[in-house]
Amino acid sequence: KQWQEWRGTILFILFVLIPVKSSLADWNWVPTGSMNPTIVEGDMVYVNKLAYDLRFPLTLKSMKHISDPERGDISVLFSPEDDIRLVKRVIGIPGDEIYMVNNILFINGEKLKYSELSSEHTQDLMAELRQHSLFATEHLGEREHAVMSVPRLANEKRSFSKIVIPEGHYFVMGDNRDMSKDSRYFGLIKRKLFVGEATDVIVSFNILDKYQPRLGRFFKSLD
User: Fold this and answer.
1) Dihedrals phi, psi of 36, to nearest 5 degrees
2) How many CB atoms lie under 10 A from the CB of residue 84?
3) Residue 99's pLDDT band (cuts 50, 70, 90)
4) Helix ranges restricted to H, the chain
5) Which one of 75, 88, 133, 149 is the catalytic residue?
6) Is 161 among the catalytic positions?
7) Global pTM?
């Protein structure tokens, strides 16, 4: 009798929810500030798993290649260190020559442009963090997005030597350049480790302040 009562729910989970969540669309809670100010702690982001591949459910095996990650994408990927899912921005793609000097990026011999960032992009950060941080708009080719640094933090990764990204690999970073463990630490990301593209915030709760809802971030598009 119990099986009959729960059969519909169990079959829905097995044959609809799990395949959809593993192959088509997903969500990802973000517990850290490595993507501040674009994504803040407590955001739940929507992940388009069809952005790059159609995969067999519950695997990383691709049934159909759709596209490759592009510079500026906010991607969900598996860390090459410990297989934990991360949310990072794609900075370098195959063939790029990239290096950084004092948090200023150079790609293919050109210094990226940085301009002033509107305060509306930082209003969801804690007041103390805003006070001790520097913010800018980074122009990554035709795309632009917010970045930040925290000068008072010691960080030996504000500069790195020139690298050329080989085929099938990508260089990723957090928008919070002084508080992100990314390709500067664990190296390049293989193409197969990309899960999908994070395109929107679904809901957001301030995990640093009694999980207060940030209603202004609900259904917010990500740049």
Assistant:
1) -60, 145
2) 8
3) very high
4) 2-12, 18-23, 127-131, 183-186
5) 88
6) no
7) 0.88
